[in-house]
Amino acid sequence: xxxxxxxxxxxxxxxxxxxxxxxxxxxxxxxxxxxxxxxxxxxxxxxxxxxxxxxxxxxxxxxxxxxxxxxxxxxxxxxxxxxxxxxxxxxxxxxxxxxxxxxxxxxxxxxxxxxxxxxxxxxxxxxxxxxxxxxxxxxxxxxxxxxxxx
Length: 150
Description:
This protein has 150 residues and is α/β, with parallel strands linked by helices. The chain has helices at residues 12-26, 48-55, 78-88, 92-105, 117-126, and strands at 32-36, 69-73, 112-114, 130-135, 144-149. The chain has five helices and five strands, in the order αβαβααβαββ. It is globular.
């Protein structure tokens, strides 16, 4: 039986794998953008605070006065995590508590949830009043970017 010294890690390959997984996970966010239909009159620039208010049910209008309907992605999707961390400034548990409180008091309902970037794009194509967020690399000519999330 081989003995290891207490000052050496017995499984260096395990350490390398752990570091690799952490490194990959921490850079999984590739950037998110907030998008609307090209047919929607978005008007002037939209701020992160204005978008946050729309997704938290505090507002339903863009600065141009155009009414919009927010759509969310499934919990656990990278675009959703990045969007809520950087724009809304809430982690998943804070967000769940927020919506639970509003639902319980009858003051609001969370946005409709779709599966992923592709479904956000499809929903925006089907209903030009919707606003959503997708990965930067999913942007195509069927959507207009109104906010880059950095």
